[in-house]
Amino acid sequence: MFLETLSPFLQDIVLALVGLITTLIIAVAVELRKRVLTWIDNRNSIRTQEILHTLAEQSFHLIEAKMKESSSTEKLNEAIYYVSKRAEARGINISTDEVRAEIERVVRELNYKLK
């Protein structure tokens, strides 16, 4: 074999270079994997926020039309339930506080547009 004909000194150098190149390739692959996973997490987070916002808007309009005579607390609780169930059906796990905050944000936005 070619490596057998080289002197032991050259053999050590070639093996060290192969090891170094392999290490560099692995390090680059690990870093690339981290960056891709971060990008995917960020993309999913943005998409989740968009879905949550859409569900909050839907719940606002539905609850306002359905529960005209109810108190604002009852409407808010029903909207939270609506958004939570729809998010859960889409595989999105989100806390009640986050749902409440998004619904309140939508209400403020829509009230601002009406003024």
Low-pLDDT stretches are: none
Q: Quickly give the structural class.
A: mainly alpha
Shape: rod-shaped
- What average pLDDT do the residues reach? 87
**Quaternary structure type:** single chain
Span between termini: 84 Å
Radius of gyration equals: 28 Å
Compute the number of strand runs.
Answer: 0
Q: Major beta sheet, specifics?
A: none
Strand content range: under 5%
Number of alpha- plus pi-helical segments: 4
Count the domains. 1
How are helices and strands ordered from N to C?
Answer: HHHH
Helix content: over 70%
Can you characterise this structure?
The chain is mainly alpha-helical. The chain has one domain (8-114). It has 4 helices and no strands. Helix 2 (8-66) runs antiparallel to helix 3 (72-89), helix 2 crosses helix 4 and helix 3 packs across helix 4. The longest helix is centred in the N-terminal third of the chain and has 59 residues, at 8-66. It starts with a helix and ends with a helix.
